[in-house]
Predict the 3D structure of the following.
Amino acid sequence: MEAYRLCGLLAVELFLTEGDELLVNEVAPRTHNSGHHTMDSCETSQFEQHLRAILNLPLGSTRLHTPAVMINLLGAEGFQGPVHYQGLEECLALPGVHVHLYGKAITKPYRKMGHATVVHPDMNQAAALARRVQQTLRIESR
């Protein structure tokens, strides 16, 4: 933070290689999609924490209150045009599933259209529910 002379949030996206090497992929002086799960899984989200910092307010607890798995929601291969969500209602009916759509009107193959956070006291159950969302929710065009 000091090197960048920043106030607020600095997101650092890391990759762990198969050889256990840690690589810095991106440094962003803002909230970041890799931390969107904090809206549903932490006492203070990255968005609130950023505002607290730049407004010189006391920082909130970053404690994880529930284990979470976050998945990106991407446009389906072979579809481009006005967005249509298949399986959205079924996913929203699942306990612990929080779907966050970004409001984009047009989908394209692999375009990031939102994310889903799945919270559950058991991480294995959260991961299983996340896989179910991935298999159920399709982002297509009409």
